[in-house]
Amino acid sequence: MMIVGAVMSSIVIIFVMMMMRKKNRPPGPRGLPVVGNLVELKRSKVGILIYLQQLSKRYGPLVYLSYGSTPTLVVSSAKLAKQILKTQDLSFCSRPPVVGQQKLSYGGVDMAFSPYNNHWKEVRRICMLHLFSPKQVLSFRPIREQQVQLMMDKILSNNSTRVINLSEMAMSLATNIICGVAFGRTYDDHEYQKKRLDNLVLEAQALMVSFYFSDHFPRLTWVLDKLSGLMGRLDHNFREMDALYQQLIHDHLHPDHHPHRHDVIDLMIQLKRQTPDSITWDQIKALLMNLFVAGTDTVAAAVIWTMTALMLRPEIMKKTQTHIREAMKGKQKQQQKMMMIDEDDIDRLPYLKAVVMESLRLYPPAPLLYRRPTTTTTVEGYEIEAGSTFIINAWGIARDPETWENPEEFVPERFMKNEEYDDDIVNGYMMEDMWMLPFGGGRRGCPGMGMGMPSIHLALANLLYSFDWESASNNNTNINIIDTQALPGLTMHKKNPLLLLPTIHHHLIIPSSPI
Ligand code: HEM
User: Fold this and answer.
1) 200 CA → ligand 1 middle, Å
2) Which atom number of ligand 1 is nearest to the Cα of residue 440?
3) In this prediction, does ipTM exceed 0.95?
């Protein structure tokens, strides 16, 4: 009798505790036992971004989900994002340490996936000083201009089908720029090493966001990851990337290596020679990985989404091209140069800058931001346990009708005042109000914005100046389709490649031009 009584009272206590715990949770859909909401998140037919937006409409700006055993909070309002990224920034300075990212970042000794600690502070300080400073960014200008020139030449000389796969070209441009910046060399598109590097980076990106049982379920579930073959792929990718970086570092250490411009590996080797304890070889390799993963496909995605947005709105395309062509009137074409616009000209193109910003609002290349509080913290009156995952829905926030007028419309003029692109307006929206978060925010915000934006502006300015663009017909249906379907992943890529037909702008026709 006594035993039954004890069992009954234990059940009651557990039940009361569960009810109390549930009450102190933000609202959210009920999950299944053990797996929580994982299944619906994975199976969502509308795509994760729209699914999360629907959740916020139903439950409010802070939604509770569970990914297996991990409590997960989805943040969908600018006010709450500001609280997390700015007011309570210190409590939210780490990211969830997921298996794929930890492995490929040498155990989180990089910048992007390191937890918030003294090591991260030091790496970030070193990079801000030696890599992302305005002086360094400027020193990489010849690489950007040379690569955009090459892309333009390639488009001009494409006389086979005339259809351009702009998605491929933008990705190639972005990796070539980062190769120049990081390794001091560029690879021809067909060169074996470039193809190998491209494949490795793509595989690494996929492995970083793959689903690992061991991230969501405690104890022995790593066995399932092993059985699924994922761990084998991860190990293989890590070894290949490591060998590649090793070789590049080795080349840079060779006594015959005398570069006329220092690249990132040179800068890091210099630093290591001056203060050997300041950085380890693994940290240098992990940083090279960061440049590739964070600095290539974000830039490519921004170029592609901007061109897609303009193709869908011919009147804005026309206005942008007229603005650029008017601003460039009188500039003499340099002999044999397909690239007309250089980085000095970009400040004369305010409308283009506004177009790019509006594209970053509606199609942020990194649509979801991740944070993990390391101590118990209170948000909106709810006590959130340490180790929970926060997903800040930057994509949804930038489409919130509470903050934006006609949020789904593409209106570059939002960022202009008296016909000029207005930095104060942009900073207000991004840094102050956090109505849009294309570069994230707070201490973990993107350090590479100053490095990425000049490439995006330069590529688009030249593409729009020199060519008029038409959609290429779809072979199967013969219909001209420009869609905005996105692929899930750390970076939001356009699912279908952007296939376009360029026609050289009549001012530029060169007698021997094949187009
Ligand atoms: C249009 C171009 C780019 C976009 C839209 C972009 C966006 C972002 C976003 C959203 C984050 C996460 C911020 C957060 O969690 O608050 C991030 C982080 C980061 N980005 Fe960028 N990025 C771009 C270009 C670049 C470039 C060119 C580089 C370097 C060459 C770079 C390096 C990084 C690094 C290292 C981090 C991690 C920072 C940390 O955790 O401390 N990004 N970026």
Assistant:
1) 20
2) 16
3) yes
